[in-house]
Write a structure and sequence with these properties.
single chain; alpha/beta; Rossmann fold; two-stranded antiparallel ribbon
Length: about 170
Amino acid sequence: MRIRFLTCGGTIDKVYFDQLSQYQVGPPGVERILQELPVAFEYTVQSVMRKDSLDMTDQDRQLVREAVLACPEQRIVITHGTDTMIETARVLLDIPGRRIVLTGAMQPANFKNTDAVFNVGMALGVLQGQTEDGVWIAMSGQVFDPRKSRKNRERGMFEDTTPPGENSAQGS
């Protein structure tokens, strides 16, 4: 099995410069994560863009969509900024023949206390565990349907917005 990682930037890829009190979106953090882990699958990392997700436009989301459509792999992980991850996921919902999982981080992959490694691992588990094609978000230790989820900025995590008593599984 071969997995394609498409990277868009976001916090997972941020590099901070203390002297300048600024950040830049750096190289894909997932490359370092994968190189440091004993992974038992083949993969390709492809940078689509290096942007904070708040700066992403509809045109940028179309670039992500085009990159997914051009992938020879059927299993794809997209690393993305958390602020607009759901919007990008929704643009990908109607793509057939692909299993796509979006993930990111609340802290940069270069930080010691990052959630990036956990979230990438979760995304890989979702990607390999799903038996159906579709689009999911792997964040905050859970799997979300992008049509029924949101980022709760106050709590710093993603949450399901499915009304109580309704099934939150994708395709239900």
